UniProtKB/TrEMBL annotation:
PANTHER family: PREPHENATE DEHYDROGENASE, PREPHENATE DEHYDROGENASE [NADP(+)]. Belongs to the prephenate/arogenate dehydrogenase family. PROSITE patterns: PDH_ADH. This is Prephenate dehydrogenase. Residues 1-278 form the Prephenate/arogenate dehydrogenase domain. InterPro entries: 6-PGluconate_DH-like_C_sf, NAD(P)-bd_dom_sf, PDH_C, PDH_N, Preph/Arog_dehydrog, Prephen_DH. Pathway: Amino-acid biosynthesis. Keywords: Coiled coil, Oxidoreductase. One of its GO terms (molecular function) is NAD+ binding. Residues 234-261 form a coiled coil. GO terms for biological process: tyrosine biosynthetic process.
Length: 278
């Protein structure tokens, strides 16, 4: 099986390394950065790399697009004439509904696009952040469409399992976006808001413990990518932000009124929910 990966950054590079570690020999990579391609080849992540996709596409059985959301549909539109008949395409994009709609307009009948989302990213950019061991024990989401063939969905699921993912769940694109707005995008929004809240000083880290470090870690963010993710899922994310604001208002009101019992109730509710989750 010949597998091509477009985009050899932290995620694409991790997939390449994971597939090679799983025994797949014919892994081909494409990236716009020449040093990235050279690094991927020298490290053994890929069998062969290129700055252009044209030479690889006609022979690929599986094509993984590790691209920004805005690049997915344009890539399909530009290169669809080169696709091998029966090629299975997949992605790693953190939003689905908008991207699926865009791809549907340009995807040729000879290709089957199985949309997927590995739930183990990295705040690091570029191939230097590639580490396939992060996928071990991780979750992944598949968002099937009515056009997908079952055998192709299973193919992508099996590839995920082979590189270490242990829980692979099929969900609708709408449910995916709704839940991702809460469990991922809202967390990034909160982290950014905390860091930008203008309360920091030169001595801030003198007072900071693990909770501050953990909460603010994801504020070290790829602004270009996350702007696209936020905007492509803005309705669901706005709903999550508004729900958070409601809960913050509850906490603020208990402080204004010095309502100790209500404050304890809010803490108890959160503790019970967190322990139920984990």
């Amino acid at each position: 099986m010949k597998i091509g990966i477009i985009g050899l950054g932290a995620i694409g590079g991790s997939f390449a390394a994971g597939l090679r570690a799983a025994g797949y020999e014919e892994i081909y990579g494409v990236d716009i950065d020449e040093e990235t391609v050279k690094t991927a080849e020298k490290s053994g992540m890929i069998k062969e790399g290129s700055l252009s996709a044209e030479g690889f596409l006609p022979d690929l059985d599986v094509l993984l697009l590790s691209l920004y959301p805005s690049q997915i549909a344009p890539f399909i539109e530009k290169y669809h004439a080169l696709f091998k008949a029966g090629v299975v395409i997949t992605d790693v994009t953190g939003v689905k509904t908008a991207i699926i709609e865009q791809v549907a307009e340009v995807l040729p009948d000879i290709a089957d696009f199985v949309f997927a989302h590995p739930m183990r990213g990295s705040e690091k950019k570029g191939i230097i952040g590639a580490d396939h061991t992060r996928f071990i024990g991780a979750n992944a989401l598949i968002t099937p469409t009515s056009k997908n063939k079952e055998k192709n969905i299973q193919l992508i699921e099996n590839l995920y399992r082979e590189i270490g993912f242990t829980k692979i769940t099929r969900v609708s694109p709408e449910l995916h976006d709704e839940q991702i707005a809460y469990v991922s995008q809202l967390m990034h929004a909160l982290s950014v808001a905390v860091v930008n809240s203008n309360q920091a000083s030169e001595d801030t880290l003198t007072f900071a413990g693990n909770s501050f470090q953990e909460l603010t870690r994801i504020a070290d963010i790829n602004g270009e990518l996350w702007s696209e993710l936020f905007l492509n899922n803005r309705s669901a994310l706005l709903k999550s932000i508004e729900q958070l604001e409601t809960e913050l208002d509850k906490l603020k009101q208990t402080l204004k009124t010095a309502d100790e019992e209500k404050l304890k109730d809010l803490f108890s509710k959160a503790t019970a929910q967190r322990r139920h989750w984990y």
